[in-house]
Amino acid sequence: MITIDSPTRITLSLDIIKKLTCGPYAGYHELGIVKHQISLADTLSVELLDGTDGGDLVECDDPRVPRDGTNICVKACRLVRERFGRVGFFRIAIDKRIPVMGGMAGGSANAAAMLRALDSVWELRLTADQFRDIGRELGMDVPYFFDGGTAFDSEAAGVLKPVDTTLGLHIVLAIPDFGVSTKEAYGSIDYSRVAQNVSLTSAMMKAFSGNDFNGVIKNTHNDFELTVFERYPRLREIRDGLMKAGCAAACMSGSGSTIIGIAADKRDAEKIAGRVDCETIVTETRGGGSGLFYFPTNSIKIASTFLAHSK
What we know:
33% helix, globular
């Protein structure tokens, strides 16, 4: 049996550029996202089953996670079997900690971890490019997870560029009691209102490169908020509640429904989590506990400025 962690990410800057009308990814969207990997992770336990009959088995403590062929880990197994002529089925146990339907890319993170497990069990010796190419067939968010860290990702447009930074963040995840489906979020896009903050995304990348905490805070945004907040005003309330509780910045992650807040330090993050009227998780930049990341303190002073900017 192989046990592998599946750390996820948050989106700190998200532009919806356009819907692609031609090429292999017609119907998908070109995005402009700054992704930042955090320590919150699911754990996958993967075991090769005896015999060659039957199918892959999925076990998970969250009933919202599919257990049939629609599960992205099962899709990964099927794709690799067909691509490389391998035989055998797996029991896949998922210890789910990443919010489901929360804009946190938990499924994509699981898919990347599953591909790594398959590479190990079947001794495929996949290259980095092969991992990314196979991952893209499973989902546009999957290739990012093979390098992780902080990166700019256009997803369907094919640009994935790492951002060199040692800036660490303390994060509060506010999790409402409902999810937002990806299909619903994309289906409600108002194209006349999006892609107006591309300059903020460029500034966000520059801020991370310079380990500039305040620069990251000032440029946090998410185009999906424009329409998702109209359908779900509770999410706006949660975002504004995080700001009032003391976050330096807050925005929705991905297409929702998780709202992320950035705190000045771990102690503040824990205090803020106790002031928000929904489920919360306190987390941080992945690798932050190793001492390799710089976590600035006392940078909370610009919070009120950001709240005015984000309304």
